[in-house]
Amino acid sequence: MLRLIGNVLWLILGGFQAAIAYFIAGLICFVLIVTIPFGVQAFKLGIYTLWPFGTSLVPATTNPLSGLVAVLGNLVWLVLFGWWLALIHLIAAVLHAITIIGIPFAVAHLKLLRASLAPFGYQVAPFGADSVRPLG
């Protein structure tokens, strides 16, 4: 019940707008065709941003080749998108941590900060899951 209340408050207090920004970025990546893998990651982060309480980012079980592709994708992501997304989440976390009520939201922003730095090779899973199988 607490997770539901936290997620609803998160949506009202800025989570919805952040998720919409990720979805718009994903759509732009899809339009550019070459950046479709980055669009998929943006949508994954958008879904994670919509409902951060009760979910976590866990390593996806993959073969070694896709692990190398994930590392390369994360490097490109970090240079193009990740550093400024992480900076935005860091600033939001500091601002939320000023008040006692905002501390859970600061923690959620720190979870999103980690996710925004390297989204390739990870999937959103219910809290407590160690790993999940890749979709598809």
Strand arrangement within the widest β-sheet reads: 1-2
Low-confidence stretches: 131-136
Helix content: 55-70%
Shape descriptor reads globular
Describe the protein's architecture and organization.
The chain is mainly alpha-helical. The protein has one domain (2-126). It is built from 4 helices and 2 strands, in the order ααβααβ. The radius of gyration is 15 Å and the shape is globular. The relative contact order is 0.17.
Briefly say what this structure is.
By secondary structure, this protein is mainly α.
Structural topology:
Layout: H1 2-31, H2 36-50, E1 55-59, H3 64-96, H4 103-117, E2 122-126
Helix pairs in contact: 1-2, 3-4
Supply the key terms:
68% helix; 2 strands; two-stranded antiparallel sheet; 7% strand; disordered C terminus; 4 helices; 136 residues; mainly alpha
